[in-house]
């Protein structure tokens, strides 16, 4: 199994930390992981992305041009990475802010109103975890428990009171993707 | 015992390894894309031991390294391309004074202030002498986060064995990316340094650290001594990795990040029925001339893949010595090609 993922959006949406959390959880489950962030001027100008590769085998190139999955959090990233998902691949995107999704028919596309759901949960910062939950429901590549364990390890102790919220967000995402149809 | 496994950036892994390798001091100055190193060390060293000092410039950093190494400390610095250029005078002095230390250059795009994106444009500077005079550095090229940690240990081991500065030549991508890293290194015991300037006590000879030898006869002796050492290093310390070279007709030679990308290119090429292989020099100095020359007896063509305009291609040509055609593919300015892009150009080169 090898899963090649692009996670992309604005800086501050938790794009890089999604990849890190997913990477950490996969590592704990014994997989190989590479996480390659954008750190260039585009990041300072607003957009951020990371290529996260998870595999049962050793990973050669951490840099790739096509992806199994895109988790997309803003319109520019949809425009840029929509065409770069492999045929038969998957896009999970934040549909409160992205108005024009890819119109490709050869991939699965799920619209998840994560920002709206996060708002209802009274913490706009957990939209990323909602999307991550949605993705993991469709591709259960690592368990939600492993994600929580990863967060426990990655987050400093002073943020551990947020673990419950994060778990609820992951579960919310799983619930949302079950209720939306792919387009 | 539970293994110490972490998910870390290359820069962080290198910094953690430096502490575990028992550095006495780190002198440096922040510059993207290696600023995680001083960040990590400034956070960790006060409680785990050793001196962390942010100098006023890279020129100051390297001269602090010179001084501390002369006094027998296990010492390192790190920087990125423009900052490392500033250090070259000091590096030449340290090489001449024969002092062990570890230098790290997390290569970004140049020339000039250039870009903060990954590059391998400092190959010539690293391997052909960035400073003045006849000297060499042992140059290690990590291609994974694990090796960013491992080569700190290897680097100090070689530096202290040969009394010479060792350079780890990394790049912005290996420095910034996260991978699994296992810390299970053997501790590096402090080595005996009778030459260090630790104070003249009774019964102890005077230690003098200098790189100034005004009399040409004396200078030449130093040069000869240095070159003997480099010959010894060339004999003993060549390191490389080969992937699918046994029956390879077409070989890519690449180091660092480029080797990772090219590894996938080789896999893609094999899937298309091309007998491709990869040679990854791990030491850029000493360079694996002999082995590459040997492989040229069987292979039909070789191509380097580098994030520069073809600097290492010159060394491959020296190794191959005209036996087979040697080409190059690379991107510049901080652009990183995908494995597919490399394959396309590799196939073009094969057909030429």
Question: What does the model show?
Answer:
The complex is a heterodimer of chains A (183) and B (352). Chain A is globular. Chain A is of the alpha/beta class. The longest helix of chain A has 17 residues. Chain A has one domain: Pyruvate-ferredoxin Oxidoreductase, domain 3 (3-Layer(aba) Sandwich), CATH 3.40.920. In chain A, β4, α3 and β5 form a beta-alpha-beta unit. In chain A, α4 packs across α5 and α5 crosses α7. With 352 residues, chain B is α/β, with parallel strands linked by helices. A seven-stranded mixed beta sheet of chain B has the order 3-2-4-5-7-6-12, sandwiched between helices. Chain B contains 13 helices and 14 strands. The interface between A and B is medium-sized, with 21 and 28 residues. β2 of chain A pairs antiparallel with β8 of chain B.
Quick structural summary:
The complex is a heterodimer of chains A (183) and B (352). By secondary structure, chain A is α/β, with parallel strands linked by helices. Helix content of chain A is 39%, strand content 25%.
Which characteristics define this entry?
heterodimer; A: about 180 residues; alpha/beta; Pyruvate-ferredoxin Oxidoreductase, domain 3; six-stranded mixed beta sheet; about 25% strand; B: about 350 residues; Rossmann fold; 2 domains; seven-stranded mixed beta sheet; five-stranded mixed beta sheet; 13 helices; 14 strands; about 40% helix
